[in-house]
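so the lab meeting is tmrw and i was supposed to have these ready like two days ago... anyway. pasting both below. for each one the top line is the aa sequence and the line under it is the structure tokens. i havent really looked at them closely yet so no promises
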Amino acid sequence: MLFNSIDFVVFLPILLVGYWSLNQNLKLQNALVFIASYIFYGWWDWRFLGLIFLSTIVDYSIGRELQKTDNHKRRKVLLYVSISVNLGILGFFKYFNFFLDNFLEAFTFFGQNFTFSGLKIILPVGISFYTFQTLSYTIDIYRKKLNATNDFLAFSAFVSFFPQLVAGPIERASNLLPQFSVKRVFNKAKAIDGLQQMLWGFFKKMVIADNCAVYVNEIFANSSDYSGSTLLLGAVLFAFQIYGDFSGYSDIAIGTARLFGFNLMKNFDFPYFSRDIAEFWRRWHISLSTWFRDYLYIPLGGSRGGTTLVIRNVFIIFIVSGFWHGANWTFIVWGALNGFYFLSLLLRNKNRAHLDTVAEGRLFPKLKEMLRILSTFTLTVLAWIFFRADSVTHALEILSGVFSPSLFKSFEVFPKGLLMLILLFVLTEWLNRDKDYCLMLPFAASWKQKLINTFIIAMVFWSIVVWQANTEVEFIYFQF
């Protein structure tokens, strides 16, 4: 089920009424969340509900066994079983054909040609997200940072929690799971706050992302027909498409969860205002970045040790992050390129130079800050070309077009209205960059402020109605 669908518009109010009608009965509320989550996911393809249930049973059982024993060898075996089952399922559905194709292609170097069409494997929506979520549970119990739960219903609801099930945020069990064990009371201020964040998420998705997608799809599909200027414009529009699409989903998910009394972690923090790549990765897809930091980068040694180890760890983390996004060399190159960007800062000890909000307490950034923001955005846009292109060859062709004399030709495609809308969007986000999200309006306010709030919300809602794309577009990250 898509957030931006009529189905969800009907589904959510019915669920909310039923949920809060249960008079804070924890078991019944958790049961309803569990059932609703399976309906939400099964709306896409009910056959893959078994995969979520399998992950749930495996990690719940292993968690309980880990809690019972202090035997180091047994604990390791249990952990490896959890990792093997979860990554095995993920690997088969997401990477089987990729590895098979590359394995067969390797034989061409030895003069052997094999043909195999591969298996017709459908990638389950959101498998990368809920796999990492359940893995963090068993790993934290293994590290003795978390106690296993004995409440199977609460754990099942945690794994399948519908707002963030298919595209995150990737929640830690230490944050979300305990919330299923605490009585939840309806809070009007939190509900309004959640609705506001949802509305802004819908704006980013349906107005910014979906309208950018129309031009991005055209330019990337016919890249050989366009000049360098238009190709660069297509890359910039994709940067706003993927940001509006993915952060928009996170806003809707976080806002929806808040309607039910749950607090999810912040997943985006105005990343395009970053002053270097390290800051960008602290602000982009925060739940994934911190997951890789805590469960891969630090266990590998992090930035401790010699230069060779540091370089190795950085490239492992970024290449794995790229590969997490999809079974294509384009994602691996995208990850490696970001690794190069990041490494240049880490080796100079500059990777934590910008931990504050840019131009904090000031309306305008300094010239130096502005140049850093623009340079970081440029590097990000160039990397996004690999993310969006059909192949590495396709990406290199687009880059060669961008870095050619045709860069200074006039645009063949120039969506003036959309660009003005993006500019207004950027300015609005800039003015609200110190908040959790852009449309975070004060609840306890004077009647004048309430009037202003009503006007702002009405304008955002009106813009969604007027500017939404003509077709229903799936969220980009559903494919990951």
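ok protien two:
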Amino acid sequence: MNETPELLPRPDRKTVDVAVAGRLIAAQFPQWSDLEVRPVDAQGWDNCTFRLGEDMLVRLPTAEEYALAVEKEHSWLPVLAPALPLEIPVPLGRGVPDEDFPHEWSIYRWLGGEPADRAVVEDLTTFGVDVAEFLVSLQRIDPTGGPVPGLHNWFRGGPLATYDGWARASLRTLDGLIPTETAEEIWERALRTPWDGRPVWFHGDIASGNLLLKDGALAAVIDFGTCGAGDPACDLAIAWTMLTGKSRAAFRDRLEVDEATWRRGQGWALWKALVVCAGAVGDGEGLPADASFVLEEILAAHERPD
């Protein structure tokens, strides 16, 4: 729990193509070998993802560290799903490594919808309340025996201090490009609000790409690779990555979030935005629009508290 990013392993990430997915299906799930395998439009980072026919999804981890989530998802998603108000992925098959693919992997039922985006959400305040309702339901599920923060979810649900070194290195990179003194003040304030509550279930990556819309409304939540039982503050980052003004206030009110948890959630959003911006600057690029938006929202909230 006290490891810093400098001590965490850097995944040896390797992607695979449709041919690998098709071969694994044919060898291990021959009943589905006649179904078409094709890549999804938007690939994630932790897994290579493919459609299997019209009703299923194949996820192949890109590194050993990401494969740690497979057992967790197969054990816990069937437990979580019946207690939640929205659809979530439920595993249909668990693949094993072979001589050419070294990780366990999964088959899920395909959940339709489009990724959430402010431009397509019909009512952002209703959306914020719906996300909060989902998180309230998730947090009410008995966490006994649930996976505690660790490498399987990159320490989501654990202390923000795990990423202090990374955040401060990013601040140094961004000095002169953003108000780093204010950002550091916000970060340090978040660090001073440690969590000492009862563990609850959290998703770990409540982000636009993992929230699916149908007809402009929230319909499903996907990708539970970072889920676990611990501090739920990491699930509050969406308050700054997607929500603004009234929608952010409605989200907070429905969750009944105390000030300390709210500050830690802001810290999670700030850490990710700093890292993304610093990475882009280090690559000789400008500040990315999405991460810059998050920084602007956090800095504005600091100047004019919600």
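from a quick look at the 2nd one: The longest helix spans residues 259-282. Strands lie at 37-39, 47-52, 56-61, 91-95, 105-109, 114-115, 200-202, 211-214, 217-221, 228-230. will dig more after coffe
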